[in-house]
Automatic annotation (TrEMBL), chains A, B:
Biological classification of the source: Bacteria, Pseudomonadati, Pseudomonadota, Betaproteobacteria, Burkholderiales
Ranges of residues in domain Activator of Hsp90 ATPase homologue 1/2-like C-terminal: 12-135
Pfam families recorded: AHSA1
Gene3D superfamilies in alphabetical order: 3.30.530.20
Signal sequence region: none
Family to which the UniProt record says this protein belongs: Belongs to the AHA1 family.
Protein's name in the database: SRPBCC domain-containing protein
Domain of life: Bacteria
Length: 152, 152
C-alpha cells in the first residue's frame, strides 16, 4: 500500500480550517465548486469536476467516516477512478506556532502508479488553495484550479 | 520504505527541463540560490538554505548517480537531515502532448514521518518553481521560496 502525505500551515484558528473541510460550502471554496451532498458522518459528499465549457470530466463520491470539530476529517472513497476506490483521505489539524497545521493523507493506494504522482502534485496545489481560502477568503477551486500536467 | 512522488508538465522541450536539473546554474534557479559543486556523475552537488539574513539553516550534499541527457537525473543524499541520508531523488523526463512531463521521486525514506509530509509539500512547491523557471525564465528558489508551514 502507498500513501500521499502533505503538511501545510495556515495562519488562522483550527476552527476556520475545520469549517473549510467539513462543510459543503467550505469544500466548494477550495477543491471543486461542484460539491454537493451531506457533510456528516455516515453520509456522502459528491465532488464533480468540469471543463471550462461545463462538461463533466470526473468526480468522486466520499463517505464521511469522521468529523471531529477542529481536529480531524476522514473520508472513504466510494466511487471515482478505479485507483481511488477504497482509499482513505484524512485531514488532521493542530494549532502550533501561531498557525494551524494540516496533516493531509491519502492512504491505501494499491500501487504507486503514475496517476498517484499526478494526484500528489494536484493535492499539493489544492492545499495551497485551501490555505488561500482560509487566510484570504478565496481559493482556486476547480474549474479555476492550477493545472499541473496533461491529465489536468 | 516510503516514497514521495509527483508529476508535473512543463511547456518546453525536454532539453530545457534537463538543463534546469543537470547544471549548477539551473538548479540554483529553482531550488536554492546557494548551489555549488559539480553536476557530473560520481561528483557531489551542495545545496544550502539560508534565512533572509543570510544565516545557514540547512543543506544537503547529493552524489550524482545518473545524468542521461533529456531523460533522467538521479542523486543519492550523502549528508543533510538524518531522515534524508541514503534516500534517492530522481527526475524522469518524457515529452508528451506538447509538454515535458517530469516524474519526480524521492525514495527510500525509512519511515513515513511528519517531516516527510512537509518535504512532499515543499517538493511540490519547488516543482512549480522549476516550471516557472523553464517556462518563464524565473523560478522562486530559496530564500525566496514559497513558505508552507512552521518548518519553512
Amino acid at each position: 500500500m502507498s500513501s500521499i502525505v502533505h503538511r501545510i500551515g495556515i495562519h488562522a484558528p483550527a476552527s476556520s480550517a475545520y469549517r473549510a473541510l467539513s462543510t459543503i460550502e467550505g469544500l466548494a471554496g477550495w477543491w471543486t465548486r461542484d460539491t454537493t451532498g451531506t457533510a456528516s458522518v455516515g453520509e456522502c459528499i459528491n465532488f464533480k469536476f468540469r471543463d471550462p465549457a461545463g462538461k463533466e470530466i470526473g468526480g468522486f463520491e466520499m463517505e464521511v467516516l469522521e468529523q471531529s470539530p477542529d481536529d480531524k476529517v476522514r473520508w472513504k472513497v466510494r466511487s471515482g477512478p478505479a485507483e481511488w476506490i477504497g482509499t482513505q483521505i484524512s485531514f488532521s489539524l493542530a494549532e502550533q506556532d501561531g498557525m494551524t497545521l494540516v496533516l493531509f493523507a491519502h492512504r491505501e493506494w494499491r500501487e504507486e502508479v503514475e496517476f498517484m504522482a499526478h494526484c500528489s502534485m494536484k493535492w499539493a496545489v489544492f492545499l495551497l488553495s485551501l490555505r488561500d481560502l482560509v487566510e484570504r477568503g478565496a481559493g482556486q477551486p476547480a474549474p479555476d484550479d492550477v493545472k499541473i500536467d496533461n491529465w489536468n
